[in-house]
Amino acid sequence: LDLSNCSLHSVPPDLAEATTAVVLDLTENPLTTLPSGSFLGFIHLQSLVVPLTLECPGGSDAWQDVTVDRSSRLCHGQRNPCNSSVELVWPCPENSVCAPDGPGLIQCLCDNPFHGYKCLREGTFPMLLFGGILGTATVSLSLLLWGTQRRKAKAP
To answer: CA-to-CA distance for 99 and 76, rounded, in angstroms?
Structure first.
């Protein structure tokens, strides 16, 4: 994806749709910062070229090779932060596993059959019970309102 020399002052919001990009060029743009969530979900990104004034997203530890030339910085070979020897700042809770979510970013995915907040619930979501209670409450409330409001309707 070549976004070089596009007069970008900030990362375009539509960039979030390009998470399958492997190579991204942002050189020759008057960018001042790269917000931390700009590359969320970019797990396939292998080469990123940014203006010399900017650092690689996630820092140099998030990349295998950082090369600087006269006008740009090449960030190459995105590292998996889950496989590093450095202890994660926010370790994943029990019953979950770490997964990369972009340069220097991680996400915690629940192991099967766990789900919910901090992967503490085991089994599947009780869809039948939830749907039954919701349906019963909706029908009951509808009948109550129909019965109490029917007399206020004007007959033709």
So the answer is: 20
- From CA 98, how far away is CA 45, in angstroms rounded? 18
**Dist CA 63 CA 39 (whole Å):** 13
Q: Domain for residue 50, yes or no? A: yes
Q: Considering the entire predicted model, what is its pTM? A: 0.70
Residue 24 domain-assigned? yes
Structural domain containing residue 38: 13-83
- pLDDT tens digits, residue range 78-96? 998 887 666 666 688 899 9
Q: Which of 28, 30, 88 is nearest to 58 (CA)?
A: 88
Q: Quick check: is 40 in a domain?
A: yes
In this structure, what token pair is assigned to residue 10? 């900030």
Contact assessment for residue 27 and residue 71, using Cβ atoms and an 8 Å cutoff: yes
Cis peptide preceding 113, ω within 30 of 0:
yes
Number of separate domains in the chain? 1
SS3 62: helix
